[in-house]
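Hmm, how's this folded?
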Amino acid sequence: MESEKRLCLHCGKPIQGRMDKKFCDDSCRNTYNNQQNALSTNLIRNINHTLRKNRNILEALINPGEDLAKTTRDKLIRSGFNFKFFTHTYQNKKGNQYHYCYDFGYLELEGDWFLVVKGKE
C-alpha cells in the first residue's frame, strides 16, 4: 500500500519522518505559528504599550514622596494619555469611581480636573 505524500504546512515541501509530523523543520514550524498568532500578539502588544504609557504619565505627575496630585484633562491629553485604556476600577465608600493603570489611578473631579493617586498595594 502506497502512503499518501505529506507536505509541510508552511512551505509545501514533502515531509519525511513520523506520520503525525506537519512541518519539514523547526524554522517552518516557528514561522507558521508566528504568522497564525501575529494579529492577536500585535493587538495585545499595542494595548500593553498604551497601558504602560498611561501608567508612566500618571506616575510622572506625582512628586516623589507623595501619594497624590491634581492635574487637568488638557495636560493629560497633551501628554498622550488615552482615557479608553485602564486596567481596573475601584469605587470607594463615597461612591467615587477611580480608574487605574496598574498601580496609579485617577478620579475625575469637577471642571475637567483629575485627582491622580498612587495605589497602596
Observations:
- Residues 26-61 form the longest helix (36 residues).
